[in-house]
C-alpha cells in the first residue's frame, strides 16, 4: 500500500466502486487502508501512533468505553506506554508527550468501579518506589529544568515536561496516587522546583504545577514538607514573584503613621460611643456623589493627590515605623489631604496570567496551611519574614493583581488573625492591618460578590483587640463601606449570577455578616446603625433628585460599552438605577435587622429615626409605576415587618399611615368628575401631557398616576405588615387602624376605591370597540389626543368606526385594505375584528392606566379583607368531643371602629351613583356588580360563615338597605318603570341579568340559617365594654328573610332574562354524592360537604361536625306572617312548573322548595301537591299515548322532540326527586292516578313506534355520525350546555322522559318490596333494643323509657328518619332512615 501513489481516500473510493461494502464497515476499512498506506514511512508511522494515542484520550474523557474498554485498553497496553517513555530517541518527544497525556486520561478510569486502572499505572511506572521509572524520570526532568545550562539537545522539552507535571498532578489527586508519590520521596524534588529562580512564563508554569502537586500530597506527608523547608520556599518564591510585579507596578499604600495607638484608641472608642446621640438630620441633605467624577467609596469632595514620592516605597525601606509619633486618626484627615489612589490604576497593566496563577496557588496553600493543626508551630512565625511585604503589595494593587488574588491575600491575613489572635499586634506593628483597612475602606473595593461578602469577616478579624477596633473606627468605615450599595459599579456584583440565585443575595449575605460584626463588637452598633440610616436617607435623596433608569438600561449597567451616555444637557437630571438601589439597600438592612430574633438592632434603627427615610422610599416620585409589584417594594415591606414583629414598634404603622394619608390628600383631583361629555380623569391627565407615549415615566407629566403608584406601594407594605398570626401584633395593628389617623385613612381609601372602580370601568369601556354607542363623545377628545399626527387622519372618530362595521362586506373590506398593511386585507378574518394602527396605539397607551388602577383595586380589596379578619379575630376552634364551650371575646373599641368604617365602605359602594356625564346605565351596573362581589368576602369567610361583627355594622350603616335598593334600581331600569313590570318588559339594560345573578348569590348566603346560627365568628350576648351592642343572628335572619321574600316575589313567575338563568351545577363525584345521600344527608348539604373537602371521609366528617341545629330561643321580631306564606304556598307548584318549562336545570332547587313547603304545611298540603303534580303527569302521558293514531314521523316527533315531551320529562324528573323525600305520599298519588299502568302502556307504545321507525343511517350534517366525535362547542354554545345535551338526545331518537320514567318505576317497585318486608319483620320483632359496649364486648339493654322512645321512633311512619336525644352520663343520638 505504501507504494501506491494514491491517497487513501482515492483508494477507498475505487474499492467502493468495485465491492459492495456495508455502510457500518466502511470506516473500519478506511482506517486499515490509511494505516497500511502510512506504515511504510517513519514520519507517517509516528503520526499514526500519535493519532491512536490521542484517540484513546478522547474516548476515555468522553466516557465512551463502557462496552469495549477491555478491547481498546487491552492487557499489556500500559507496559507498552512505559516502554515508549523509556526510549531515548529525541525524535519521539511528541510521542512521549502524547503517551503521558493518554496515561493521564486513563487515571480517571478509576472512577469506574468495574474497570480501575490506577493501581496498574502505579505498578508499571514504579511510582511508589524511589528508584522506579517515574520518580527517576521526574527527578531527571527537574534537574534538567533547574540546571544553569541545560544539555543540548534537551531531553525534556516544554511539551514533554508539561505533560509529565500534568500527569503528576492528576496522579496525586487520588489517594493511592498521592501515597505513591509520598513513598518515592517526590516532595524534595518538587520543593526544589519551587526554589528554582526561573521567572520566564514557561518556567512559572512548571512551578505552578509543582505547587499544586505539593498542595495535594502535603496532608499525607507534612513531615517531609517541613523537613525540606517547604514553607520557607513558598514564602521566598512568593517574594520573588511579587518583586517581579513591583517592577511593573511599584505602587504601595503608605501612611505617615499607624492608624491608632493604645491611648488614642480609647478616645476614639469613647467618641464612637457618644455618636449614637447625634442627629441624622444632616444626613438627609447629603447628596449622593456623582459616580462619573467621584470614587464609588467616597462620601465627600473629590480627593487631592499626594506626590508620587510619598506613595512609592522601595522594598528595602520599611513602610511603617512603630517608633513614629502616633496621631489619633491618621485616616480621619481633611478631604484636601486625602490620598489619591487613582495612581494605582493609571498604568493600566495587569499581572502576567502565569504569574497570577502561581501566586494564587501559593496563597491558596498558605490559607489552608494556616488552618492546619500540624503547621501550628511553623505558622506562629509566618508573618516575621517577607510575607507581610508581599501581602501588602498584593492588597495595595487590586487593580493590577485582580480581585481573586486580592481576596486570597486578605483571606490569608484573616485566617492568620483568627488562628493566632495574640499575634494581631505584630501585624499592626508592621502595618499590614493598616494597609488592609486602607485598601478596603479608602480605595475602591473590587466589584465582585466574593470580595463584598468577605468584608465583614475581615473586619471582625482586624477588630479583635482594642487597637484594631480603634483603627477600624478611625476609618469611618460604615459610611464608606455602605456606598457600594448605591454605586452603579457594584450593581453587577449585587445581581444574581444564575436564575436559581435569589435576587439581592449578595446584599443579604453582606448584611448577615455585618450583623455578626456588630454583635461581636457592641461598641460599633450605634455608629453602624447611624451609617445605615444615612444610607437609607441617601436612597430617598437619590429618588427625589434623579429619575429612575428603565429596565433595559439597568439590565446592562456595569458593562462599560453598554452604559447609556452620560452627556446630558445642562440642568437635566442624570438617571440612576433607583429600583436596584432600593432592593440592595433594603436586602442589606433586612438582613441586619432580622438575622437574629433579638430586637436590639430594630430598636436602635428606630432610635436613629430610620423610619422616616425608610417609609419615605415608598413615596418617592421618580419610582416607576410598576414599582409596587416589584421585589424592591416587597423588600421595603419586609424591613417594616421585621421592625414590627421583633421590636413591636407601632411607629411603623403610624408613620406608614401618615405617609399614606398625605398621598391620599394629593389624589383629590381624581375624585372630581369631568364635565360633559365626561371620561377618565387618568386618561385626561395622560392626554394633556406633551408626549403621551412617554408621560407615564415622568411624575411631572402624570402626577396622579405616580401618586396612585405610591399609594399602591404603601398598601402593599401595610398588607405585608398586618398579615401575621401573632396575637400581639394583630392587636397592635388594629389599634393603629382604630386611631383617628387610621379611620381618616380608611375614609380616604373608601373614596379611592370607588373612584378606582369607576376609572377601571371607563378605561375598560374605552378599550372595547362595542362598549359605547355610535356617535358617543364620552372620552373621545382624550383618546384622539393620544394619537400622533401621522395616525390622526386614519381614525375618523368612534362614531365613524362603529358605523363602518355595519356597512356591507365589500365596502368594509375596501376600508380595511386602505388602513392595514399589504396582505392583511385579503385574509379570511372578519374585518370587524381587525384593529387599525390608531386603535392599537390608543390601547397601548391606555393599558398602563388600566393596569395600575386594576392592580391598586385588587390590593385595596386584599387590605380590606385583611382588616376584616383583624377586626373579627381568629375563629374559635371547637374540638370534637369538647363539651365546655369556649367563652366569646368581645371586639375591642378599635376593632368596632374599624368594622364601622369598613361597613361604611360597603355602603358607599352599594349606594354609589355615576357622574352626570355617564352615558350608559351599564356603567352603573358594572360598578354595582363589582361592589356586590366585593361585599361577599367582607361579610363571609372562605367557608361561607358570616362575620357577625361585620353584619351588625353593615346593617346599622344602612348598607343592607342600599343592598336591596340596588335590586330595586336594577329591575326598574333605573326607576324608569315599575318594578313588577321591569322583567316582563324586555327593556332592561344590558348587564341586568349578570347583576341579578351576583346579587342573588350574596342574598342566598345572607338568608342561610345554618351558617348564620353556627358561625364561629359570633359575638357575646353581653359585655362590660362601653359602647358594645350585642348582635342577634336570629333577629337578623328574621329581618333579612322578610326583605328577601319581598324581593324574590318580584322575580317570581317572571320571564327569565336573556343569558340569565340558574348556573350549571358544578361537576362533582357522583359516587361520593350518592354515598353521602345514602347515609341520609340532604343533597344540598352533600354538595356543600364535597365542595369543602377532597375525600369521602373528609366530607362525612364535615357533615358530622356541622349538624343542622334548630334555633332555640324567642325573639321579639316577628317572622313572615302565616298568611303571606300560605298565599305563596297556594301557587308555588304552578310557579315552579312554569319556571321548569323554561329552565329545566332548576329541577333540584324546585324539589328543595317543594320539600320545604311540604314540611311546613303538613301531610295534607303535601298530598294535594303530589296529587296535582302526578295528575298532570298522567294527563300528559295520556296525550302522548295519542301518538299511536298519528303517522310515523308525527308520532316520533311527538314522543321525542315536542314541547309536550319536554314538559313531561321535566315533571317525571321532579317526581323522582320528590320520591326520595316523600315515598309513601308519592306512591299513594301514583296508585290513585293509575300512573304505573299509564307509564307501562306508554313505554310499550314508544318501543313499538321506535322499532318501526329506526333512525336514518344518513343523518344531517348537524347530527354526529355514529362512532364519530361530536364537534367541539364554541364559546357561545357553552352557555347552552344542557340544551345541547337535550338536542343530542333528540337527534339520537331517544325520548328525554325515558330515563326518569324508568327510574320512577324502579323506585316504586323498591318501595313496594320494602313495605312488604317491613310488615313481615314487625310480626317477628320483640321491640327490645340493645347497644354494644366496646369496653366489655357485650350487648346491653336500654332502660324502659329509652327503649320505648327508640322503638316508637323506629316504627313511626315519618317521611324521613328522626333524631332522638337524651342525656345520662354521655350524650346519645339515634337516627333512623327508612322508607317512611
Descriptive report:
Keywords: Transferase. Residues 305-330, 829-841 have a biased composition (Polar residues). With 1380 residues, the protein is mainly alpha-helical. Helix content is 61%, strand content 1%. The protein is built from 69 helices and 4 strands. Strands 1-2 form a two-stranded antiparallel ribbon. Strand 3 (1363-1367) and strand 4 (1371-1375) form a beta hairpin. Helix 46 (837-872) runs antiparallel to helix 47 (893-910). It is extended, with a radius of gyration of 45 Å.
Write the layout of secondary structure elements.
Blueprint lengths: L7 H11 L4 H16 L3 H20 L7 H4 L4 H10 L6 H15 L10 H8 L7 H14 L11 H15 L2 H9 L2 H10 L5 H17 L4 H6 L2 H19 L13 H13 L6 H4 L23 H4 L31 H4 L6 H18 L5 H4 L7 H10 L1 H4 L1 H17 L4 H6 L2 H10 L7 H14 L3 H9 L2 H5 L9 H4 L10 H16 L4 H21 L5 H5 L22 H17 L5 H8 L3 H6 L14 H17 L3 H16 L14 H7 L15 H20 L4 H11 L2 H28 L12 H6 L3 H4 L5 H8 L3 H11 L17 H36 L20 H18 L10 H19 L8 H9 L2 H13 L7 H7 L6 H15 L2 H5 L19 H17 L20 H9 L4 H9 L4 H10 L16 H9 L1 H11 L4 H15 L1 H23 L6 H9 L2 H19 L1 H11 L1 H18 L22 H4 L2 H11 L6 H27 L5 E4 L4 E4 L2 H12 L7 E5 L3 E5 L5
Antiparallel strand pairs: 1-2, 3-4
Amino acid at each position: 500500500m505504501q507504494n501506491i501513489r494514491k491517497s487513501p481516500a482515492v483508494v477507498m473510493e475505487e474499492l467502493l466502486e468495485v465491492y459492495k461494502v456495508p455502510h457500518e464497515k466502511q470506516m473500519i476499512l478506511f482506517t486499515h487502508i490509511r494505516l497500511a498506506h502510512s506504515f511504510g514511512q517513519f514520519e507517517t508511522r509516528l503520526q499514526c501512533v500519535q493519532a491512536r494515542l490521542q484517540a484513546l484520550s478522547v474516548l476515555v474523557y468522553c466516557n465512551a468505553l463502557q462496552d469495549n474498554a477491555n478491547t481498546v485498553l487491552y492487557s499489556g497496553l500500559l507496559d507498552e506506554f512505559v516502554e515508549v517513555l523509556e526510549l531515548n530517541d529525541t525524535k519521539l518527544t511528541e510521542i512521549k508527550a502524547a503517551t503521558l497525556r493518554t496515561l493521564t486520561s486513563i487515571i480517571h478510569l478509576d472512577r469506574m468501579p468495574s474497570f480501575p486502572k490506577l493501581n496498574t499505572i502505579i505498578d508499571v511506572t514504579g511510582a511508589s518506589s524511589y528508584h522506579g521509572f517515574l520518580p527517576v524520570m521526574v527527578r531527571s526532568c527537574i534537574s534538567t529544568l533547574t540546571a544553569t545550562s541545560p544539555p543540548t539537545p534537551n531531553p525534556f522539552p516544554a511539551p514533554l515536561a508539561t505533560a509529565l507535571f500534568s500527569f503528576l498532578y492528576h496522579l496525586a489527586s487520588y489517594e493511592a496516587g498521592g501515597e505513591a508519590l509520598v513513598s518515592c520521596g517526590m516532595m524534595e524534588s518538587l520543593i526544589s522546583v519551587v526554589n528554582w529562580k526561573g521567572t520566564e512564563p514557561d518556567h512559572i508554569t512548571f512551578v505552578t504545577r509543582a505547587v499544586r502537586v505539593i498542595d495535594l500530597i502535603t496532608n499525607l506527608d507534612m513531615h517531609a514538607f517541613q523537613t525540606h523547608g517547604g514553607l520557607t520556599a513558598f514564602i521566598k518564591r512568593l517574594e520573588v514573584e511579587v518583586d517581579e510585579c513591583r517592577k511593573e507596578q511599584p505602587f504601595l499604600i503608605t501612611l505617615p503613621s499607624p492608624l491608632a495607638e493604645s491611648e488614642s484608641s480609647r478616645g476614639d472608642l469613647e467618641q464612637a460611643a457618644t455618636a449614637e446621640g447625634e442627629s441624622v438630620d444632616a444626613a438627609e441633605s447629603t447628596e449622593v456623589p456623582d459616580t462619573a467624577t467621584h470614587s464609588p467609596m467616597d462620601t465627600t469632595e473629590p480627593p487631592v493627590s499626594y506626590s508620587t514620592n510619598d506613595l512609592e516605597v522601595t522594598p528595602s525601606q520599611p513602610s511603617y515605623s512603630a517608633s513614629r509619633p502616633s496621631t489619633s486618626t491618621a485616616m480621619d484627615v481633611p478631604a484636601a489631604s486625602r490620598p489619591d489612589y487613582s495612581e494605582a490604576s493609571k498604568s493600566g497593566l495587569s499581572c502576567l496570567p502565569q504569574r497570577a496563577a502561581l501566586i494564587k496557588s501559593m496563597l491558596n496553600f498558605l490559607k489552608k496551611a494556616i488552618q492546619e493543626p500540624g503547621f501550628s508551630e511553623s505558622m506562629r512565625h509566618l508573618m516575621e519574614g517577607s510575607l507581610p511585604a508581599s501581602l501588602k503589595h498584593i492588597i495595595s494593587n487590586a487593580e493590577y493583581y485582580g480581585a481573586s488574588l486580592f481576596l486570597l491575600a486578605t483571606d490569608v491575613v484573616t485566617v492568620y488573625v483568627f488562628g493566632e489572635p495574640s499575634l494581631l499586634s505584630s501585624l499592626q506593628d508592621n502595618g499590614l492591618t493598616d494597609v488592609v483597612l486602607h485598601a478596603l475602606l479608602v480605595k475602591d473595593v473590587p466589584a465582585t460578590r466574593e470580595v463584598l461578602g468577605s468584608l465583614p469577616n475581615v473586619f471582625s478579624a482586624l477588630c479583635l483587640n482594642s487597637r484594631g477596633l480603634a483603627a477600624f473606627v478611625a476609618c469611618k468605615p460604615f459610611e464608606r463601606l455602605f456606598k457600594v450599595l448605591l454605586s452603579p459599579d457594584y450593581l453587577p456584583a449585587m445581581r444574581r449570577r444564575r436564575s436559581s440565585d435569589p435576587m439581592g443575595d449578595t446584599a443579604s449575605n453582606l448584611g448577615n455578616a455585618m450583623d455578626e460584626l456588630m454583635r461581636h463588637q457592641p461598641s460599633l452598633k450605634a455608629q453602624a446603625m447611624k451609617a445605615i440610616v444615612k444610607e437609607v436617607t441617601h436612597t430617598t435623596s437619590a429618588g427625589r433628585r434623579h429619575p429612575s433608569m428603565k429596565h433595559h438600561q439597568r439590565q446592562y449597567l456595569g458593562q462599560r460599552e453598554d452604559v447609556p451616555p452620560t452627556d446630558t444637557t445642562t440642568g437635566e437630571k442624570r438617571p440612576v438605577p433607583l429600583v436596584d438601589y432600593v432592593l440592595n439597600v433594603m436586602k442589606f438592612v433586612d438582613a441586619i435587622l432580622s438575622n437574629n430574633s433579638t430586637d436590639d438592632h430594630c430598636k436602635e434603627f428606630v432610635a436613629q429615626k430610620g423610619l422616616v427615610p425608610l417609609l419615605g422610599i415608598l413615596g418617592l416620585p421618580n419610582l416607576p409605576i410598576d414599582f409596587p409589584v416589584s421585589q424592591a417594594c416587597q423588600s421595603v415591606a419586609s424591613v417594616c415587618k421585621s421592625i414590627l414583629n421583633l421590636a413591636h414598634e407601632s411607629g411603623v404603622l403610624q408613620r406608614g399611615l401618615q405617609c399614606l394619608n398625605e398621598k391620599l390628600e394629593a389624589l383629590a383631583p381624581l375624585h372630581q368628575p369631568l364635565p360633559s361629555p365626561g371620561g377618565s380623569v387618568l386618561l385626561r391627565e395622560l392626554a394633556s401631557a406633551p408626549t403621551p407615549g412617554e408621560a407615564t415615566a415622568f411624575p411631572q407629566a402624570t402626577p396622579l398616576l405616580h401618586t396612585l403608584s405610591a399609594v399602591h406601594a404603601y398598601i402593599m407594605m401595610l398588607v405585608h405588615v398586618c398579615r401575621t398570626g401573632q396575637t400581639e401584633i394583630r392587636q397592635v395593628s388594629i389599634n393603629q387602624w382604630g386611631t383617628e389617623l387610621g379611620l381618616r385613612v380608611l375614609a380616604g381609601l373608601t373614596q379611592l376605591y370607588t373612584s378606582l372602580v369607576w376609572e377601571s370601568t371607563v378605561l375598560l369601556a374605552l378599550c372595547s370597540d362595542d362598549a359605547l354607542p355610535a356617535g358617543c363623545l364620552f372620552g373621545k377628545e382624550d383618546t384622539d389626543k393620544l394619537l400622533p399626527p401621522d395616525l390622526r387622519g386614519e381614525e375618523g372618530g368612534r362614531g365613524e368606526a362603529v358605523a363602518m362595521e355595519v356597512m356591507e362586506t365589500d365596502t368594509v373590506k375596501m376600508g380595511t385594505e386602505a388602513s392595514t398593511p399589504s396582505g392583511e386585507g385579503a385574509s379570511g378574518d372578519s374585518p370587524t375584528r381587525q384593529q387599525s394602527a390608531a386603535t392599537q396605539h390608543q390601547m397601548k397607551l391606555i393599558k398602563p392606566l388600566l393596569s395600575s388602577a386594576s392592580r391598586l383595586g385588587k390590593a385595596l380589596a386584599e387590605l380590606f379583607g385583611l382588616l376584616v379578619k383583624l377586626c373579627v379575630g381568629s375563629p374559635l376552634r371547637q374540638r370534637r368531643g369538647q363539651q365546655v364551650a369556649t367563652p366569646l371575646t368581645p371586639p375591642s373599641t378599635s376593632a368596632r371602629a374599624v368594622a364601622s368604617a369598613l361597613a361604611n365602605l360597603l355602603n358607599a359602594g352599594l349606594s354609589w351613583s355615576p357622574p352626570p356625564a355617564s352615558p350608559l346605565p351599564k356603567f352603573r351596573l358594572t360598578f354595582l356588580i363589582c361592589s356586590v362581589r366585593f361585599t361577599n368576602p367582607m361579610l363571609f369567610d372562605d367557608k361561607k360563615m358570616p362575620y357577625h361583627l361585620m353584619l351588625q355594622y353593615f346593617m346599622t350603616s344602612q348598607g343592607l338597605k342600599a343592598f336591596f335598593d340596588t335590586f330595586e334600581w336594577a329591575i326598574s331600569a333605573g326607576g324608569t318603570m315599575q318594578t313588577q313590570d321591569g322583567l316582563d318588559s324586555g327593556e332592561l339594560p344590558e348587564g341586568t341579568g349578570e347583576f341579578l345573578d351576583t346579587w342573588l348569590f350574596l342574598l342566598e348566603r345572607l338568608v342561610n340559617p345554618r351558617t348564620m346560627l353556627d358561625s364561629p365568628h359570633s359575638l357575646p350576648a353581653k359585655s362590660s365594654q362601653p359602647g358594645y351592642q350585642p348582635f342577634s343572628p336570629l333577629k337578623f335572619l328574621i329581618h333579612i328573610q322578610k326583605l328577601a321574600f319581598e324581593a324574590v316575589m318580584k322575580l317570581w313567575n317572571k320571564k327569565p332574562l336573556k343569558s340569565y338563568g340558574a348556573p350549571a351545577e358544578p361537576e362533582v363525584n357522583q359516587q361520593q354524592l350518592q354515598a353521602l345521600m345514602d347515609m341520609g344527608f340532604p343533597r344540598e348539604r352533600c354538595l356543600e360537604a364535597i365542595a369543602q373537602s377532597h375525600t369521602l371521609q373528609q366530607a362525612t366528617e364535615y357533615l358530622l361536625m356541622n349538624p343542622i341545629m334548630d334555633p332555640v330561643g324567642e325573639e321579639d321580631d316577628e317572622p313572615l306572617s302565616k298568611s303571606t306564606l300560605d298565599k305563596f304556598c297556594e301557587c308555588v307548584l304552578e310557579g315552579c312548573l312554569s319556571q321548569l318549562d323554561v329552565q329545566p336545570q332548576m329541577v333540584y332547587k324546585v324539589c328543595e322548595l317543594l320539600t320545604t313547603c311540604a314540611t311546613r304545611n303538613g301531610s295534607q298540603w303535601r298530598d294535594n301537591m303530589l296529587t296535582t303534580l302526578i295528575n298532570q303527569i298522567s294527563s300528559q302521558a295520556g296525550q302522548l299515548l295519542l301518538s299511536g293514531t298519528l303517522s310515523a314521523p308525527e308520532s316520533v316527533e311527538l314522543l321525542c322532540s315536542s314541547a309536550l315531551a319536554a314538559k313531561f320529562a321535566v315533571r317525571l324528573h321532579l317526581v323522582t326527586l320528590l320520591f326520595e323525600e316523600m315515598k309513601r305520599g308519592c306512591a299513594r298519588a301514583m296508585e290513585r292516578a293509575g300512573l304505573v299502568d299509564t307509564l307501562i302502556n306508554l313505554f310499550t307504545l314508544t318501543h313499538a313506534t321506535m322499532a318501526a321507525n329506526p333512525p336514518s343511517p344518513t343523518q344531517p350534517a348537524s347530527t354526529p355520525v355514529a362512532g364519530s366525535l361530536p364537534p367541539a362547542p364554541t364559546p357561545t354554545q357553552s352557555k347552552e350546555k344542557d340544551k345541547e345535551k337535550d338536542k343530542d338526545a333528540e337527534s339520537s331518537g331517544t325520548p328525554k322522559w325515558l330515563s326518569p320514567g324508568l327510574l320512577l318505576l324502579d323506585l316504586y317497585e323498591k318501595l313496594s318490596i320494602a313495605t312488604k318486608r317491613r310488615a313481615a319483620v314487625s310480626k317477628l320483632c320483640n321491640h327490645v333494643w340493645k347497644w354494644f359496649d366496646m369496653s366489655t364486648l357485650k350487648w346491653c339493654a336500654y332502660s324502659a323509657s329509652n327503649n320505648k322512645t327508640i322503638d316508637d321512633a323506629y316504627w313511626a311512619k315519618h317521611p324521613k328518619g328522626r333524631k332522638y336525644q337524651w342525656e345520662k352520663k354521655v350524650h346519645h343520638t339515634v337516627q333512623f332512615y327508612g322508607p317512611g
